[in-house]
Amino acid sequence: MAARTSPAEDHQDKLPRLLTLPGRQCFAFAGLWEGWRNPDGTILRSFTIMTTTAIPALQQLHHRMPVILPTEAYAAWLDPATPLTGVQELLQPYDRLPIDQLVVGETVNNVRNDDERCVTPMDRTPRQPSLDIALQQAGR
What we know:
Blueprint: E1 4-7, E2 16-20, E3 28-29, E4 31-37, E5 43-49, E6 51-53, E7 64-66, E8 68-69, H1 74-78, H2 84-89, E9 100-103, H3 131-137
Antiparallel strand pairs: 1-2, 2-9, 3-8, 4-5, 6-7
């Protein structure tokens, strides 16, 4: 996963954020999956992403964050032979690199949207009225 968005929780602007590692490096979340067979024979697969306490830079957005695995931990996370204590040690807040935050538009809040607009930084520059509109309002 290269990025994650998060609506601000109790944050004054309530705008969604694109959260990335510097240079939009790829990263992986710690997740679990399970499959079981229904009586009709179909397999139901379920998935979850593990969470942990948010790092200080993200606490204004939410009190939790997904567990981001460092690259060198991928093999241990995926190996069923890893002892439980070894897996538990991986469930820590990610503090290796800063996490960049960019405000993105509301497009990201609709699951039908799956394009560049979802990760395009929102222009937060205040709009200036054109000279014509300003002159009209001034009665000129």
